[in-house]
Amino acid sequence: MKIVMSLFIAAILCFAAAESRVSRASIVAAEHMIDEKINAYSTDPYHPLGDARGTYLEGYGVLFTNELDLVNTGALTMSPFKPTVSKEELAGFHERKVKKLAELKDAMRTMLVNASGILEGLPPNERVAMEAILYSHSWEITRDLPHRVFMSAEKQKLVNAKAAHAGQPELTAIIEEQER
């Protein structure tokens, strides 16, 4: 009987150790919020290449990733019916992407703040991070455009910013940003 009880207690401890601090349900809720925000642009929509994905990294925090094209390239994609793209079309397309990059950064800051309120169980000193992987075609002008945008901040700073109704300048001051 002692052996059975010892195995039972060991099994409970193993499952307790495997349980994440941050529930999968709260990560999924934040993923859906990110997807909704990305899909909310109607006048010049982003072209998401999949759904947002999140994971909890013990001791670091939660990381969300998504891959998207800043602008839907459908009209410019070369085909037998449109074998070339003019220099003017390429330049205009590039301008739209540069403009959309700035909008994406603002949206990512807002999404980090909103995610901080959803992620129950995430310790206040751990981070909420997001990486957008930006797709581009080989024929595009890519100068001034990164391939990745990464942002992160401590959960408590994001919660405080939300409570203070912080604007983009205040969010820029507390969120670490990298472009690659």
Strand content: 15-25%
Mean pLDDT over all positions: 87
Class from helix and strand fractions: alpha+beta
How many distinct folded domains? 1
Radius of gyration computed on alpha carbons: 21 Å
What is the H/E string? Answer: HHEEEHEEHHE
**Contiguous uncertain segments of 5+ residues:** 13-17
Anisotropy-based shape: elongated
Give the beta-strand count.
6
Question: Could you outline the blueprint of secondary structure elements for this entry?
Answer:
Layout: H1 2-18, H2 24-39, E1 47-48, E2 53-57, E3 61-69, H3 87-118, E4 127-134, E5 148-154, H4 155-163, H5 168-174, E6 176-179
Parallel strand pairs: 3-4
Antiparallel strand pairs: 1-3, 2-3, 4-5, 5-6
Helix pairs in contact: 2-3, 3-4
How would you sum up this structure in a few lines?
By secondary structure, the chain is α+β, with helices and mostly antiparallel strands. 45% of the residues lie in helices and 19% in strands. It is built from 5 helices and 6 strands, in the order ααβββαββααβ.
How would you describe this protein?
This protein is an alpha+beta fold. The protein has one domain. The protein has helices spanning 2-18, 24-39, 87-118, 155-163, 168-174, and strands at residues 47-48, 53-57, 61-69, 127-134, 148-154, 176-179. Strands 1, 2, 3, 4, 5 and 6 form a six-stranded mixed sheet that branches. Helix 2 (24-39) packs antiparallel against helix 3. It starts with a helix and ends with a strand.
